[in-house]
Amino acid sequence: MEYYNQFNSIQKFLQQQEIDRATEAKNQAEARRLMTELELASTQDTLSQVIEISKEKEMQIRLLNTEKQLQESKIKEQEARIRSERLFRLVLVGIVFFVLLVAFLIYIQLRQKKKANELLAQKNAEISAQKQKITDSIHYAHRIQKAVLTPREEILHVFSGHFIYFQPRELVSGDFYLLSETKGYVVVSAVDCTGHGVPGAFMSMLGISFLNEILSSYDPTGKDFSAATILNQMREKIILSLHQTGARKETKDGMDMSICLFEPGLKKVHFAGAHNSMYLIRNNELQQFDADKMPISIHRNAEKPFTNHEIPLQKDDCIYLFTDGYADQPGGEKGRKFLSRNLKQLLLDIHTRNMNEQKAILQQTFENWKNGYPQRDDILILGIKIP
Questions:
Q1: Which of 21, 64, 196, 207 has its CA 20 to 30 A from that of 221?
Q2: What span, in angstroms and rounded, lies between the C-alpha atoms of 171 and 201?
Q3: Which of 180, 206, 177, 134 lies closest to 325, judged by CA?
């Protein structure tokens, strides 16, 4: 029984220990639970704080980012403004440089222009002086040319009814006319030299000299004296004096010419022409006496003599000698030439008028026909009425 009691006591003791241990374990577990809860609560508080802190930090970060963005935006704006200001300064410097460059170039140009104008003024003065000398020389040549042309008084002495329509294109002329009287014979000629102006005038002076030389050396009563003979002699002198050989590149200077040789009493006329024909109007009919188609100069037919026409004359016959300037003048509405057929018709229309009226009509018709076109060539028409 004692053993049973001891065993029972030991068993109770062990049970009590188990209970104590269980209680202690329970208490420990409860303590741990409480500790865990406390730690959990603390952790939750800490987490809440962390969350709050995180929110605050996030807010701060957002604010910082916003400030950073604002700062970056300001920096960008400042950089853009700096770039704009730099670009503006560069553009301004470029404009100033360009303006200075343009001003410098203008200055150089004005300086050069001033020098050029001074040089031009000097050259103009020299040219004006030379032009004046040339003009004076041309005026002097004009006076000489006018002096060597047959005076109107001499023509009136032979032909009371006549006109001379002489209108050079320039001051001096390549056309000229001549009247010469020897032993009752009268020579009348209308001549168109190569060129006009000064070159033509030189040739006309040569032609006048040769023609006077020929007329002074021939006896009009001789058998070999005729209008054609005069042209033959003129051609020989021109070819010889101008050293013409007929070479391909040689200039063909010379003259076209019509010449009438009136016998004493004006009952007959001898006519010969080099390109320039003669018109005779009688009883309201116009007769054309053709010239030879060769000039007073070197020509492929230079050995061929000119043709002499002998024409009996009647009272009131009208004879016209002319150069080609009138018929070749461009004008009218289409700028065409006046043409020989129109000149013939005009002469037929006016031949019954007195000679002064005929000349005036020819002049007025010519001016009207030009219609603003410049005069193309020298003009020469001689009209003679047989008394």
A1: 207
A2: 10
A3: 177
Structure confidence at residue 137 (pLDDT)? 74
Amino acid at site 134: I
Backbone phi and psi for residue 131, each to the nearest 5 degrees, phi listed first: -60, -40
pTM of the model: 0.69
Res 153: pLDDT: 83
Instruction: Catalogue all structural domains in the chain, each as residue range(s) with its CATH number.
Output: 151-385 (3.60.40.10)
Largest CA distance in the chain: 220
Average pLDDT over residues 252-258: 92
For residue 144, what are its two tokens? Answer: 């000489």
Residues 6+ apart with CB under 8 A from 158: 179, 181, 186
> Model confidence over 101-128: pLDDT tens digits?
888 889 898 888 888 898 889 988 888 8
> What are 329-348's pLDDT values in tens digits?
999 999 999 999 999 999 99
Tokens found for residue 35 = 């500790």
**DSSP calls for 234-288:** HHHHHHHHTT----TTS----EEEEEEEEPGGGSEEEEEEEB--EEEEETTEEEE
Q: Which residues contact 137 (CB under 8 A, 6 or more apart)?
A: none
Integer Rg of the chain from CA: 63
Residue given tokens 């009688």 in the structure block: 282
